[in-house]
Amino acid sequence: EAARLEAELAAAVPRAQHEAAEAGLRAEAAALAQRLQELERRHEKTCEEVFRVQRQALFMKSERQAAEDRLGAAQKQLEQAQDEVRRLRELHGHAEDAARLVKDRDRKITELSKEVFRLKEALNALPESGGPPQSPPNTATLQARIRALEEKLEETETRHSKVVTLYRSHLLYAVQ
User: Is residue 14 part of a domain?
Assistant: First the structure.
């Protein structure tokens, strides 16, 4: 029975053919194993590359966030600077208005001083009488006008002083 089975086996697949097929399958298995190792190496390289790209993307994202933060801070500083420029322009306008007021006050003070001086000259030019001091009605009017003008002059100088002080404070604030 054993001999018959061996004969059948030998007839079914010749031994040399069996060994050749086995050697071919072993070579194919070795080639597949080698290809599998190559694919595993490529897979590792690909994983490393993916990891590197992910790390780079994360770094780029953090850099972008930092740049956006810097941009936001710069925009905020720009807005603050623009607000400061507007405020300084307003102060400059107030300072110019105060300067105009000071010039107007100076002009008025000068005019009043000239008027007082002229009136004093006119008063001194009046003839003096040797008797008791009797002021003609014109002299009394002139003296009253002189007093009124002197009071107005003092009032104007006081206002002028206040305007100059305000102007100086505006300039000092603008400089600061």
Answer: yes
